[in-house]
User: What shape does this take?
Amino acid sequence: MRSEPHLGIVGRAAPRVDALAQATGRVKYLDDLSYSGMLHGKILRSTEAHARIVAVDTSAAKALPGVHGILTGEDLPVAFGLLPVSQDEHALAVDKVRHIGDPIAAVAAEHPDIAQRAMELIEVTYESLPVVTTMTEAVETTEEPIHGDGPRNNRDREISLEFGDVDAGFDIAYHIREDVFFYQGNNHAALEAHGALGVVEDDGRLHVFSSTQVPHYLHRILAKVLEMPESRIRVTATPTGGGFGAKTDVFSHELVAGQMALITGRPVKFVLTREEVFYAHRGRHPVLMWVKTGFTSDGRITAMSFRTFIDGGAYGSYGAASLLYTGQLQTITYRIPAYRFEGVRLFTNKPACGPKRGHGTPQPRFGLEVHLDKAADDLGLDPVTIRKRNLVSPNTVTVNHLRITSCGLTECIDRVVADSGYLDKRRHLPQGHGIGFAIGAYMSGAGLPIYFNDMPQSEVMIKVDRGGGVTVYSMAADCGQGSTTMLATVVGEALGLDPSDLVVITADTDLTPVDLGSYSSRVTFMAGNAALEAALKLTDLVLTAIADELDIDQDAVEIGHGVVVAGDREIPWAEAARIAEARWGLLVTTGTYKPPKDIKGDYRGAGVGPSPAYSYSACVADVKCDPETGHVSVERVWLAHDVGRAINPLLVRGQIEGSVHMALGEVLMEEQTFRGALHSGPSLLDYKIPTVLEMPRVESIIVESIDAEGPFGAKEVGQGPLLPVIPAVVNAVHDALGIRLDAIPLRPDKVLAALDDLERGGPGRYGPTDLPDYTFRSPLRVDPPPEAVTV
Amino acid sequence: MEPVTLTVNGATRRLFVPPQRTLLETVREDLGLTGTKHGCELGECGACTVLIDGVPILSCLTLTVNATDCEIVTIEGIGSMTEPHPLQRSFGEHGAAQCGYCTPAMILTAKALLDRDPNPSEETIAEAIAGNMCRCTGYLSILSAVAAVTEENQ
Ligand code: FES
Ligand code: FES
Assistant: This one.
C-alpha cells in the first residue's frame, strides 16, 4: 500500500470541498462565463445522413448585420481524431457529411437570434449518397463506403485474438453453451450541455474554455487543427455539469470557438442545445454479441469464445479502444484457461459512439453474466456457485496477460448474497417477483496513454506560501466525481491539514502540470498517487527542517493535525512551513505517476485492458414485473464494491448510487434509436431516464481490499458499480417470469413478446438469433503467460 | 421592448425586455444570476427552476413579461457561503450534489415544499422533486438531504 493513513482524514465521510459553492449557485460552469463584446456562436448541421457537399453558400448570411464570422470546412482543413489511428474527423465537414447533425458551418453573431437567422440563410447543396444505418447493411454495402474506399468498406477496426488453445478447451468440455445478445446504444445525457468559449487574451494567445473532461487532449488537438503551437494556446476546463464520458472527446464546437475568436478578435461562445448533444453523442455503442463457453461437469470454464459487432456510427472517436474493451475484461473476473476474442467496429450513418461510463464493458458484461446464469441452469448449479468455481484469485495473471493484484470479489459476492437473502429467495418469490445476481469488474486507469509517449500519465505540484497555505496543482478535471476533493484529501492526510483548507487549482494548461484526463477511472489511482508522492516529499522537507532546527532525530518528528509534533512540542503547520522555507528556499514539490511497465503485454491490443489495478463489484436486484403490461420495476438493489480504500466514503457511496441509477436507465428504458438515420427523439422528453420515482432503495456496501499500489490503497468507484446491475436485473426478470430477455433495454413490448413465446410453448425468449455474415481474419495467437492457468 | 417590474431576491428591478425574452434569459443574462441553470430550455429537465411567489416554476418556459409584479427567488436569494440556508448545508453534508448542476433547482424545489409542508414524508419529497432531473446522484442522497431539514429532524 502506498502509505498508511493515520490521521483519519482519508476514510472520513466529509462533504466535497466545493459543496457550499455548488449549493449556493456560485460554481461557474461554461455557460456562466461571459465577456463584454462576446459573440454567440451556432453550428449549422447536416440534414442529410450521407451526402457529398457540392456547395455551401454563405453570402446571404455574411451580409446579415450583426454577423461577425462564418466558418466552413475549408477554413479548418486539418483532419483530427482522439486516437492516433482514427484521424477521420474535421471541425466542419470538408467533402462529405456522414450523419444527420454532422457540423457543416459555424456562425458568430452579436446575438444568438442573429446567429440563428444567419444559419437559416446558409445554403447547402448536397448530393445524396446511399445511407447505411444497420450493422448488417454496413457489412453488406459495397457502394460508397462512409470513409475511404477499401475492399472491406464500412469496417472501422477489426480484432481477432486467441490466448491458449481454445479448441482443446472445447474438446474437453462436458457442456458447451452458446448465446447471442444485443445491447442497445444510449446517451450520457449529462445535465449540462457541452459548450466552449474562445478568447484572444491581451498577449495575443488563444484561450479556450470548455466543458471538457480532457483539457490536455483538447490542447493538443486545438494546436493541430488550428495549426498553432501549443504554447500559443491555453485551455481551461470549466467544472463540468456531468461528464460520464460525454466530454472526453474533442468536438467541432471547441475547435470552432477557438478559430472564431481568432478571426473575429472577439470572445465567442458556443453552447450546444440538447438536440445537438444527441448528435454530438459519443455514447454507448450498440453491441451484438455471441458467446460460447465450455464447462466441466462441475461448472468450471474450459474455454470461451466471444465475438462482438459494434455499431460505431459515423466516426472513429475512441472506437478502437471501445472495441477492445468489449473483449478484454471478461478474464478479470473469471479464470478462463483459453480465450478467443473476435470483434469488429462498423461505420453507420449515425452520430458517432464513444466512451460512456464502463466504456465498452457493460455490453459484454451483460451478455456474460446472463450466459452464466443460463449455464448454471443447464448444469444444475446455482448462479453463485458457478461463479465462485471460476473466480480469479488475487495476485495472478490472466490468460490475456492482465495482472490481477488486489481482489475483493469473494467478499463482495458474500456480502450481497447474505444481505439480500438471495439464495433463499431465488425461485421462491411469487410469480412476477424475482431476484437476480451478477458480478463485474473495472480498471483503475488504462495502462497506456491515448498517444504513445514515455512521460508520466499524471503529474502534480504542491506549493506552500509564507502563511502556510498549501496549493495543489493538477490538470485532473472534476466532472462531478469528486477528483478535486480526492486530491485535497490525499494531500490533506499526508500533511495533516483539513482538505477544505487546501487550495486545489485544476484543469488549466497554463497553470497545472499534465494529467491525461477524467476517463477510464484513472484519476484517483494516477493523480492520487502523483499527489501523494508530492505530498510525501513536502512532508519530508518539513520534517527534516524541523529536526535540524531542534537538533533532534528525524524519527522523533511527525505530522499531526495542523501541527508538526516533535517530542512533546507541537509546532503549528504555518510556523513549521516557515522554518522549512528558511532551510530549503521555496517549498515546491512534485509527484508523478506512471503505470508499472510490466503490465504492457507484447501483443497488439494490450494498450487497453492492462491496468494497475481492478475494482470489483457484485449486485443483487429485486424486481417486480407485471405480466399484463410487461412493465418491470426494480424494488431494491444490493451493491457491494471493492474500491480498494474509500478515501471519502460519502463520495464512494454517491458513485455507487449514481452508477446504479444510470445502470437502471440502461437496462430498463434508455435507448438511442433511429428511424432510418433520423434520431427517434433527440430530447429529454423522448429519451427516457429514470426519475426519483423509479429509483429503488440501494444498499451500498463498501469493500476495502487495500491495493498495494493505490494511493492509500484506493482503486476506483466511478464506473465499476454500474456493470453488474444490468445483468442482475435481467436475471431477476427470469426469476420473476421464467422468460429470458437477451436484448436490452427491457421494454414492456419485449417482456410481452417473451411471455407470448412462453405461452405458445417456446423457450420464452426475446432476443437476436443471427449475426451479420462476416468472416473474421484468423486470430493472432498469443501464448498465455507462463503463470496463467491454462487448459 | 416591454417594461417590467420584478422583485428578485427581495430587490425591485425595473427592466425593458423583448416580449419573447424568457425569465431564464432575464435572470441569467440581464441580471447576471447564473446560479439558475439550463439543461434543455424545453421544460424537460427542471434545471432552470426558480420560485415565483413561492412556487417552483420552469424559467425556460416563462416569459419575463408574464412575471411582472411577481416575487422571484433564485438560488442566490436563499443563502450565501457565509450564511447558507439549511438545505444548502445539508446537500453538502449528504453528498447530494456531485456535478452540482441540478443542485440550485433541486434546493429551490425542496425549499418551496418545506415552506408549505415542514414535515413531508419521503414520498412527498420524491413527488416534489420528480420534475427535477439529476443525472449524477441517483436521487437517494437528495432525498436524505431534504429529509434532514424537515422541522422534525431539525
Ligand atoms: S432548462 Fe430544462 S426545464 Fe428549463
Ligand atoms: S449532481 Fe449532477 S445532475 Fe445532479
Q: What stands out?
A: The mean pLDDT of chain B is 97.
